[in-house]
Specification:
five-stranded mixed sheet; alpha/beta; globular; 101 residues; Transcription Regulator spoIIAA
């Protein structure tokens, strides 16, 4: 997982590099929570460019990070989701609350 932080824009960019399933979601959640706590960004962007699969554990991970960002007064955004992941985001209702670029 690659993490970049832009100090001037207070933006945390997280490139997720593996499938988000029940095996990886908990590990990913812990890493992202540590980075959010460390930087306290105004915006966190998940780059799904290299994610080919996501299940319900991934949806839970996203919703939890969305709630965390709202608690600190920030926003969450998802970008570069492929067609199959985009379909899951739409079916789960995430697209109604989180900006998908």
């Amino acid at each position: 997982m690659e993490v970049n932080y832009e100090k001037e824009k207070k933006t945390l960019n997280i490139e997720i590099t593996e499938e988000i399933d029940h095996h990886y979601a908990d590990k990913l959640r812990r890493k992202i929570d540590n980075e959010i706590t460390r930087y306290m960004p105004r915006k966190t962007i998940f780059d799904f460019n290299r994610v080919s699969f996501m299940d319900s554990a991934g949806i839970g991970m996203i919703i939890g990070r969305y709630k965390m960002m709202k608690l600190i007064g920030g926003d969450l955004e998802i970008k570069n989701a492929n067609e199959s992941v985009n379909k899951i985001l739409e079916m789960s209702g995430i697209k109604k609350i989180i900006k998908i670029a």
